[in-house]
Amino acid sequence: MDHSPRFLRVVNEAKAGIREVTVDDVKAKLARGDGFELVDVREDGEWTAGHIKGARHIGRGVLERDVEKQVPDTGREIVLYCGGGFRSALAADSLRQMGYTRVLSMAGGWRDWLAASGPTER
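The structure assignment produced for this chain is given below.
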């Protein structure tokens, strides 16, 4: 996807203030049974077409409005993912601003998850 320079600037600024994890990191966390929230921030249609097994959906457009209902503990670890890692970085920065202290963005997102043959569901 060809992203605009201004969008990429905003994403890079967000990434400077958040922590990212790899697909392998997330797969290992799942395999160990680590307690964390795996949140898909993609659009409804993307979620319906397929998502990481066990993830919950809170779309980027409603994240700030709905996150406190679904994940009220601001100290709970949250791993966010999107299609390629840009929207999840923006979402992680937003949650950080809301006081969530253990938010991670999965670099590479859904695209890299599929390439790594991670478990999926519909």
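Interim note for the steering committee: The two ends are 24 Å apart (CA to CA). Helices lie at 5-16, 23-32, 44-49, 63-70, 86-97, 109-115.
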